[in-house]
Predict the structure.
Amino acid sequence: MKLSEELTWRGFVNQTTYKDISELDQKPIVFYWGVDPSADSMTVGNLAIAMMIRHFIEHGHRAILLVGGATGIIGDPDGKSEERDLLSLEKVKRNKASIIAEYNRIFAGQRFVVVDNYDWFRRIGYLTFLRDVGKHVPMRQMLGREFIQTRLAENGSGISYAEFSYALLQGYDFLHLYRNHKVTLQVCGADQWGNSITGVDLIRRIESAETNVWSAPLVVNTSTGVKFGKSEAGAVWLNEDKTSVYRFYQFWLNVDDDSVENFLKIYTLLDKESIARTMAEFNHNRGVRVAQKTLAYEVTKLVHGEKKAKAVRQTTDVLFGSGNFRELSSLDVKILEKDLTVIRLAKGESFPALLVRANMAESNTEASHLLTQGAITINGQKVTSEGQPELRKGPNLLKRGKNNFAIIEY
């Protein structure tokens, strides 16, 4: 399948300056994608663009992955109703290292180069930048952007000169990469279209050269219409210290039936035939949720590695299926311990008291009722006695009903 066909089938086509997208199927080009270190991790929203980039690379195009050490100091104002809080230089430095580590993990085995725009901006004098770059950017173009109009309106919060200049900084990134790396294409999400076009216009004015932008649609939950990657607790991150491997896997496992095929196309490297087979099996018996299980495993494997993906798949089967807790490895248990309540059994402690301490009952009386009803299990075995339960040495899985879990250390 040609790249233009692959991008179309997977849903990565949005706005572009290409008159004919089949131009991507011709000779190899150098392109770039940038992420600002506004946090110490990317989200699954960023991951969608990263997956698109994988297809560009696999079809022979060369990738420059930019981390915005300079632009991250200012912060992108697009889509923000108020001025951003500035990050310290030390915080930006730490965030950069984390983003680069995620680049290396997601694009492992692929051909790419990482650059930091702080490396060139720190060498440019202010007057030089105004004379050689700012002179070529029309104010009407910058003032015409919708978010600028909103911020400058009577009830708007206003905008600082620093944030107003952000698009010019990003435009210069494209100019610098065109000059020094022969980059002729910037890829981005739909929300970065305006900033990206600034670079195309700057290169045309200064270098009299034609370059392009390719943007992908923002991924939206089909059922809710909400930008994908947002949950009740906030963003879903690629860094397991911010979103644990278990919660990351569960996020994909809980994707709704109407969206799962699109997300298999966007977020996995499975080919057209493999996805068709998965969806045929899924539609034969949706209750088994084979499409969601495939999606969850494939994305977790890509972001966190095959070993952790297999571990979290196994632990999920123990919690919600027929898996045996006693057969879990130490890695499997460690993954669970990041998200479940972990308590140590006190000497002589009654089981009702333990249930209260594990937040499975509000009182000893309620705990006794739960035991009578057979609602409590340890390592898959029902417990009905109120005395001290029989535990194995080490971790034990305590479960109430279908969705309430804790680990007892003994």
